[in-house]
Amino acid sequence: SSIDATRQIPCVVFLHCNTGSRLDAKPLIDILIPMGIALATFYFSGSGISQGDIITLGFKEVEDVEVMMTFLKNIGRVDCKRICLWGRSMGAVTALR
After folding, report:
1. How far apart are CA 54 and CA 46, in angstroms?
2. Running DSSP on this structure, what letter comes out for residue 77?
3. Please, what is the end-to-end C-alpha distance for the chain in angstroms?
4. Whose CA is closest to 39, among 67, 81, 72?
5. How many C-beta atoms lie closer than 10 Å to residue 92's C-beta?
6. Inter-residue contact 80 to 73 (CB < 8 Å)
7. What is the pLDDT of residues 4-41, one digit of tens each?
8. Is the pLDDT of residue 58 over 50?
9. Cα-flanking dihedrals φ and ψ of residue 81, to 5°?
10. In this structure, are residues 21 and 43 in contact, taking their beta carbons and an 8 Å threshold?
11. Which of 94, 85, 82 is nearest to 57 (CA)?
12. pTM score
């Protein structure tokens, strides 16, 4: 069977913790991808290989999530009505904000 390249798929956006990284989402790959669910990860500003200088424990990180959501909307493959934010510690605070 062929994959429908125009079909929009649900997506989990992983939000890492204060001392974590986008790589903390790696175990989710084996769970989500076989279910047809995309996984998006990124570094919050001030973390990992980002260009930011500091982390704010969820305050400014909300802006990073907004940028990611805009990116996902613009690529057109993600069903924007079926996006789940999955956060750990600082990431969970950011998701709630």
Report:
1. 4
2. -
3. 41
4. 72
5. 15
6. yes
7. 667 789 999 999 998 889 999 999 999 999 999 999 99
8. yes
9. -90, -5
10. yes
11. 94
12. 0.85
